[in-house]
Amino acid sequence: MIEVVASESKIAAPAPSHYHILLPMGDLTNAEQMIAVARNLASPRRGRVTVLYIVDVPADKSFSEGATEARRQREVLEKLAQSLSDDILDIRTLVRVSHEIWQGIHDVAFAEGTDLLILGWKGYTRSPDRIFGRTIDEIMANPPCDVAVVKQAALTQHPHILVPVRGGPYARLALELAESLAASLDGQITIMHAVPQADMLEATSAGERPFMQLMQQVRDIAHVRRIVTSRGDPVQAILDEAGKHDLVIMGASAADPKHPSLGPVAETIARTIDRPMIVVKTKQQPDLFPPASVIMTPLDVSTVVDKWFAENTFHAKEFRNIGRLIDMKRKQGLTISLGLPALNEETTVGNIIKVIKRELMDKAPLLDEIVLIDSGSTDHTVEIARSLGIPVHVHQQILSAHGSYHGKGEALWKSLHVLKGDIIAWIDTDIANIHPKFVYGIIGPLLKEPRIQYVKGFYRRPLKIAGEVQAHGGGRVTELTARPLLNLFFPQLSGVIQPLSGEYAGRRQVLERLPFFTGYGVEIGLLIDIVEHYGLSALAQVDLQERIHRNQSLIALSKMAFTIIQVILRRLEERNRLSLLEDPNRSMKLIHYERNRLRLEVKDLYDVERPPIIDIPEYRQAHGYR
């Protein structure tokens, strides 16, 4: 055996980058050890770690049946992340559903732009035809990114790390990971070159050229302390040297890169060694004709919706740790505004402001501002808000050069001009049972998952009729008009539980680029447009449990339904570039029953469509656009 002591003067660890590590977890028994491995690999690069759980849904079941388990696993992972995150590394968690665990991991790794996928391995498999087991074998056969299979994840400080190499991309990846761990744990690296033939001239042959090229890069690896060359049986030589080290990191050595096998050397060592080991494999270049098992086949709309429902339906309880939300907000450098649209809400607006301001501004600064957007109240709504220290803007006076229309949608559109936050949340001001969850519940998913752009709340709405409360009688326009029409014409939105709810939040960069309908059609219009422009995965919904508010008359609900139908028809016409009705009637005859007489009232009912507010010059100037 020939040993070379490497120079102590080395250049620094890898330059910081937005390096992304994905860590799928099934069994949480050794979760802390696996997360520690990911943390130590990510820290020198200032990388980020996402812990993933795949809910395995039987192939004969709908993805939507995984919704309850997905929520449970989100809470489990979030508690784990909270206990292990710090100011240096914020651990993100993700739960997805799939009929095949390996396929779910593969899809997430691809969608997330993952740099390194870490897979835990118990060191054996019960299937004689498998190397690691089905999940790891399938991924190793077609890696979506660089992969590291970890056996015995317990790492110590000041580790001695052995890296057996022959050259090539796998060896380079093994050295990169060894350097990251050595930098994090103050360890040292031994590079070992095992030459099968006794003839040392082999080292200069064409077959050893990759190793010679690799050695030219060693000077850039700061923690290499020894370079060892051995002759003879490479497996025995590596096992002998491994006994002097705390960790072995090596590349797969299979002749066929598309086969899950590690190759005879790496596989024998992985099954034999009694200490921590990491086996790595680099991402393969995409094939012109990939294997059938990894071809991405389009899902039918129903399956897409079921999968979305399971993955993007949250519960407000998942976000009740306000400190965690504030920490995520701070690390992302975001500001959050709450807009309160109001018209004659003196009965409830004061308590709403008091509760939300006390809990989410004074006690815990989740919100950066609360602003009342009034639509010309004639009661004491405005005075109450001002007495509680809340800024008030009358929507008719905002962007007055562009005119003004009646309606909640108009107030929301104009509120974008006066609200300052990166995230904008709105809640109705007639809520009788106000709780901070109505706000943090719709903000939480936006802070937790960057891909989510817009969040809708849903809840049970008790309906009071003749003094009696009916537990599930609310949402009549939703169930009799909105959801049937969405299922019929926009089936991607068929999983949205309450498309007309008044509690929602979104990212400014999205909201400012969407048109707003000025009245009752604003909620349905935003939903359709967001899915059209950003995809279903950009949308989420949150269970806010129960909401008690003022119930509207049938006349008011009839007007709402009439307007919503018009908006859906308009979007349907635009999408299909056809005219369903040449000259649709925009007036509605409302039937009034008054004692012993009936009468008809003709009412013009239609929403004006405001353009994306980013197109308004005053808005662009106020918000820093040229």
How would you explain this protein's 3D organization?
The strands form five sheets. Strands 1-9-8-7-10-11-6-5-2-3-4 form an eleven-stranded mixed beta sheet, with helices on both faces. It has an eight-stranded mixed beta sheet with strand order 12-22-17-20-16-13-14-15, with helices on both faces. A two-stranded antiparallel ribbon has the order 18-19. 44% of the residues are buried. The chain folds into two domains: 255 residues, Rossmann fold; 285 residues, Spore Coat Polysaccharide Biosynthesis Protein SpsA, Chain A, CATH 3.90.550.10. It is elongated, with a radius of gyration of 30 Å. Strand 8, helix 6 and strand 9 form a beta-alpha-beta unit. Helices cover 35% and strands 22% of the residues. The chain is an alpha/beta fold and 626 residues long.
Provide the fold topology.
Elements: E1 2-5, E2 20-24, H1 31-42, E3 48-56, H2 67-84, E4 91-98, H3 101-111, E5 116-121, H4 134-141, E6 146-151, E7 160-165, H5 169-185, E8 188-195, H6 209-215, E9 224-231, H7 234-242, E10 247-251, H8 264-272, E11 277-281, H9 301-312, E12 313-315, H10 322-332, E13 336-342, H11 349-362, E14 369-374, H12 381-387, E15 392-394, H13 408-418, E16 423-426, H14 437-448, E17 454-460, E18 463-465, E19 468-470, H15 476-489, E20 504-507, H16 508-511, E21 516-517, H17 522-534, E22 539-546, H18 554-576, E23 587-594, E24 597-604, E25 609-610, H19 617-622
Parallel strand pairs: 2-3, 2-5, 3-4, 5-6, 7-8, 7-10, 8-9, 10-11, 12-22, 13-14, 13-16, 14-15, 17-22
Antiparallel strand pairs: 1-9, 6-11, 16-20, 17-20, 18-19, 21-25, 23-24
Helix pairs in contact: 1-5, 3-4, 7-8, 10-14, 15-18
